Amino acid sequence: MKENFLIVCEGFNTPPFRAGLLIFCILIFCGFCISCTGRSSSRSLPESSIENNSETNNAAAQNQDTEGFIRDYWHVYFERANLPDYIIENIISHLVLGPDFLMELLSILDGDPSLYILVDKQHALSQDHAPDDLAELTGGAYSVTRQDLMLRRPAAEALEAMARAARLDGITLTAASAYRSYNYQVNTYNNWVRELGQEAADLVSARPGHSQHQLGLTLDFYPINDNFAGTTASGWLEQNAARFGWSLSYPKGYEDITGYQWESWHYRYAGAELAEFIDKYFDNIQQYALQFIHAYRNME
Length: 300
Ligand SMILES: [Zn+2]
Hints:
Elements: H1 2-8, H2 18-44, H3 49-81, H4 85-95, H5 100-109, H6 113-116, E1 134-136, E2 143-144, E3 150-152, H7 153-168, E4 174-177, H8 182-196, H9 198-204, E5 218-221, H10 232-240, E6 246-248, H11 255-258, E7 266-269, H12 272-281, H13 286-299
Parallel strand pairs: 2-4
Antiparallel strand pairs: 1-3, 4-5, 5-7, 6-7
Helix pairs in contact: 1-2, 2-3, 3-13, 5-12, 8-9
């Protein structure tokens, strides 16, 4: 049976997506079709209440089977990603309704890996990871606090688009820090260690290789401190950043999850598709989504 499904999916059957496509095909051809057939026949063929109850029971049993299968299949990924129960239940509730979650995940994985790569306390970029499409932030619809800021071109363009929309609402976004090379991060981290000691420095600054800023996709808005949270720009970003592909990396109350203190000013460009994915399935917690994608990719 599995082989038949794989043949159907042959055109898309590249190794990273093999297991994902397998479950998609199984759900499409078995679970959803059978449960839909059950529901439509109960509507089109009015029978005795006993028969209707029987069909309803069959459909309910089928739905339970489908959910059980989904839980079994995804369990290992959820566990590896260390997701909390409420996130898992949210994803399961979407999975039982249809294949959107899986299709959106596969589409994201088919895009630029830098958008979803996990960079945190445990996962580092190599010393020589340096983007080759950095563009200077000259300040278009946004302002800059200094002239040498750079982001990768897709992020710079998304910043400009977002800043234009903010301007229409009477808000000016100001960029204060962007791409940081590995060596720059060495100096930054060492300065914090000198000032605060290593333990405190680790809460406010990433060790070299562990900074999202090395991706060239991450931006700190001005001011780079907690005062930013009280600005209209911060409120506007909370409501609108995801539409333009930007995601808050270190939200308030998730210090134990992200490893960092709340940073209301620090946004990572994930692309509109992933930003929406984070919001829809992961309660807008970027870290959960990236941990999940990391677990999924490493087990395929
Ligand atoms: Zn930052």
